[in-house]
Amino acid sequence: MTQNESYSRPIPLLAIVLVSFDANFHIFLASHYAHHWFNPWNEKWFAGFSQTTYPPLTHQWIALVSNVAGLKMGYMLVQLVGVLLLPVGVFRFARIWVDDRASSYAALGSIFLGALAFLIYQAGQLATITSAALYLNALPYFYDWSAQGSGRALVKGVAVSWAAAAAHHVTLIFGTVLFAGPVLWVICKDALDGRTKGSVAASVSRAVLFAVLVGVGVGVVLFPYWMTLIQHPIHQIPIPHDSRANFLLNSITAINYFVIPYGALILALPFIVIRGASVRRLRPLLFGFWLTLIFGLGGTTPLPRWLLGRAFEVLTFERFTFWATLMAMPIVGLLAVELLDRFRAKAAVALSLAAVATVGAALAWLTANPYRPAATVNVNPVIAFLNRDGHDAYRYLTLGFGSELAQVSTYTNASSVDGDYNSARLLPEMTHYGSAQLTNAKFYGSAGMASLRAMLEHANRYGLKYVFVHDSYYEPLLTFVGWRKTETFGNGEITAWSKDDVPPAHRIDSDAIPTAWMGLLWGTLPIGVSVLAIFLVILLPARQPARKAIESQREISEPARDYVA
Amino acid sequence: MKRTLPIVILIVAVSVVLMFLGLSTGRSAGTVGIASGVALPGFSTSAPNPEQALNNFLLDVQRRNWDRAFSSVERTSDTLNEQAFIQEWVGSNGGLRSFSSLERFDTRPLHATNSEAQMRARLHWSTPVGPVEDVRDFHLAHRGDTWKVIWDETPKPNVPAQIVPVNYLRWDLVTGTAGEDWGAHNVDAPNVRIVSMNAVDSAEGAVVMGEVVNEDTIPAFVNVNATLVDGSGSAIDDESSFDKILHVLLPKQVTPYRIDFPHVSLSKVKNVRMDVKATLVPASSDPVIGVMNQKLETDAQGHSVLHGELLNESGQTVNIPHVIASFYDNSGKVVWVSDGYVEQALVPQSTESFAVEIPQSVAGKVQNFHVVVNQYSLQKS
Q1: Which of A132, A500, A511, B365 has the fewest CB atoms nearer than 10 Å to its CB?
Q2: ipTM attached to this prediction
Q3: Which residues of A touch B3 (CB under 8 A)?
Q4: Which of A277, A446, A459 comes nearest B126 by C-beta?
Q5: Model-level pTM?
Q6: Cβ atoms of residues A147 and A190 within 8 Å
């Protein structure tokens, strides 16, 4: 990777994804794999942290692609693959519940989901999207194997599930309940109706075997992750997140986490509930959708807090809204079919407008909402400063850089005491306070500033000599605690502050450093299962699609006549 | 089909009940420092009693919904306009309040009748230099079916323009190369000496304090570090004076310092290793801030507090004054060092009051005190 890459300008249309909150974070993790594929210990953040704390699949793919196209293009291409897999997954998932025509509309509609646009362009949740897409693709195999006993489906379903977990474990854990639960329910219903191979017990047994194989595989593929989690459970003070707020009490939060992600789907909610309740086969899906929707409402209802316990304070809930919209799509597909059959061209125009308006609103919200990612800062002078004259012998801190912190970290040789991944933090100056990144300390109020003060107090301990400020809010504190402004970059946009008596940084000992064999596992198994899944899907085409359950749904919608997507 | 209606009703009913329960336990949250909207229509709470009225008012202030907040107060004079109202809350002249966000508040009634109420609010502000607590009393009156906050704060008068001559000393630093790092100049470090040191146990842990003097004829940038050593010679902890010191010392100037060691008991400490680092820096004695009318008092809650006033004698605004006070016993030993930030900016030729607290355990020993003032000025930053 060359320094020059940071100056390159990718295709503007795709490049919008690069200003999302987490884009630089994913690129940063990928950059480490690009340089140290088998060593997950990354010293550039938190004075050292293990990347085994985050499933690596998407980052490793970016790292691979970066050798040809660079990190930023690698990120965009992997994101693109995830997005392309999503409608395929929605189509296949929808076919469990509805016919091909409704499924095709569901798949088409999934591209225009506000929640998807929100995650791509605002949140930058690459792993969540990719994992959800893979998981949706695995579920039809789960159905085919459990209902029909198809060995090919078992092999492919298990491999794709492993790949989904290697992309994002949280999706698989919650997906088991929220997505696979309704599918298992419908398998049992089909078995009772005699539409499966063998009895209910046989179907359930096959489902259990599938779950066991997936569970064991995920345990092995992500073994270093589980070991790290057991060794260092997340005991840090909960960090506030607006997705856990009560949306009824805060209009901005309600718009950000409900209106924008659902968009025109809000108008379809009555249809989803009524149709989901009136058709027996759709009831499991309706229940799964409703539960996911309630979770996506964060602290609006107490249910997530009751069910999740302390995990409620660790998770963020925008992903549940994304999953809820995905689960709604099969029923929305039915709605599209009925509207098109009844109103023809008028319905086509209305549905198109609704879809475009949903995506358009999500994109417009990027510039209108108060939580928008900060305007891009030109961090190249900071990178150049840290990479010259031995400045990288010391650690540094950025203040007011937002997600640009990860960009600085990607291209500099120096190490920071800060970082943009909460679960990897071990330094007490950060874990003892209810705040996230030091660079955003002021947004966490007193807790954030207390954490920053604690870190600045121990500057000598960590070799923290340089502080780069992009927000004058922090200047009084730095002045009073003994830092002095030494340089100015970008016409005063960024200032560099230095402390005189700080010794050079030394390696901080940690029991979280992964062993060599864990690094080997981490560098081979996650990427290996994804390659395996690709080969199995290509080499083992389905002998017959899972039609039995679907063909029985003729009463749900009439056969396609016009406007087949 | 016969199950459709019951299922629909069940889903809707459970959702509504859960949302209702969520209203009693949920948080409106909102990221600190970002205006974070209002409750959705139908979900905002009315003000049937003074407590709720004050809570609603402070919530609007917290979210910076100024129009709503201003519309919920009753003005005692038409000269109290919305601009003055906002300035009262967000500060002016780049003072500490201008950087602050109201993080949370607690309210309690002091006195209430059917038509009037006196409420006390403890306001917790988040500021760049740490949390600041402010106690403020509010007068509320019953108007129609609601309670209103009576707003009678008079805005500060504008100071007329004036010329202030400046003739204070200033030391500049001329370096050979522009690219040199700060602090790496090829000149001898200023001669700075720790003149006293005292280690005590406090409620939060061990505290090391004392005074440092710049004995040189040039200004110095000073940091004091201390390492606690146990009986076996091993270091227990090392900390620095952080913001409890005047970092820039003019020639012959003395500053108190305090170094806190949270959760460390002095009984385990055998030795304290002190280390003072000094670097030559450019400095100016301007702005000069006078400390006046200092007196030790006991406040309503029984705490010993040093009160006084700061006078800005120069021609530039001091945005954030920082007061550091050292307290001595009858033998002249430093028994405590306290500090406090002043929330309002110190405009030229004006005064602002300050207060720093002394722990009860040392209040009885204090015979004398000395105050120095550190400052942050936007013009100089």
Answers
A1: A511
A2: 0.90
A3: 277
A4: A446
A5: 0.89
A6: yes
